[in-house]
Amino acid sequence: MRHLMSPLDFSVEELQNLLLLAGDIEKNPAKYAHACEGKKLATCFYEPSTRTRLSFEAAMLNLGGNVLGFHSADSSSAAKGESVSDTIRVISCYADICAIRHPKEGAALVASQKSKIPVINAGDGGHQHPTQTLTDLLTIYSLKGRLDNITIGLCGDLKFGRTVHSLINALIRYPNVKFVLISPEELKIPSYIREDVLMANHVDFVEMERLEDAIPDLDVLYMTRVQRERFFNEEDYIRLKDFYVLTQEKLNMAKEDMMVLHPLPRVNEISVEVDDDPRAAYFKQAQYGVYVRMALILTLLGITVE
Fold first, then answer.
1. Model-level pTM?
2. What is the structure's pLDDT at 97?
3. If DSSP codes are grouped into helix, strand and coil, which group holds residue 103?
4. Rounded mean pLDDT of the chain?
5. With 80 as the cut, is the pLDDT of residue 78 above it?
6. Among residues 3, 39, 52, 299, which one is catalytic?
7. Could you say which of 102, 129, 165, 241 is catalytic?
8. Sign of the Cα pseudo-torsion (289, 290, 292, 296, in order)
9. Dmax (CA) of the chain
């Protein structure tokens, strides 16, 4: 039995197989429409989510399976003080696979250690968000045709952004990937990512503050929101929340084939005028999230569709 706690839980070869499976699901949805008949996915979400929870549910329903679960800690026995360990033991009696999101780092790992069914980390605090990373990789691979030989700009909240941390960890395994880290001083990439991941693996990266200086050289621009829920005081959030706004004027400085990604939800960091630009790929990215989660569910349940 396998779990997914981090994108690194899959080797590069396994990841390639997952992306190819997701691509086949995109092209042949009817082929997979009954693959999970009789199977149940539990979605245990201890903090709010729109895309991640609904895309997991859509993925399982598209596979012919069923879904059960809760969408906030208040609507589960966590409100009565039940531990994650006890919750997953109970869920293991009801479902075949579980996706869990929790505000505490490491909660999903604790669940996986006590579970009798595969557990998928759907986000744990500011730590990991592996299925978003799989979504990001599928989007880049599908639209660019490669995961190597790219220059990717990561812009915004690089300190608390778990999507950014996961994506860096995943992409360093591919040759000739250069990172341009664009953030204000207060939201720079944590030292453990800079030193233990990028520098330790001799990865090419630069840190910049101005988006305008970085954008002309990028193949991919990954925008992130400044996350109010990760700040300890409101003043810092208000001061930094609009530090970066991608406008059409700034996008005009980019390559014709650059793609703009965003894990969503968007607040102010991408102007709505950008939505109609062919380089805006963030809503396609949300759709790819369903395909990759379908592929992941099949893989972890060991289901093969001929």
1. 0.90
2. 98
3. coil
4. 91
5. no
6. 52
7. 129
8. positive
9. 56
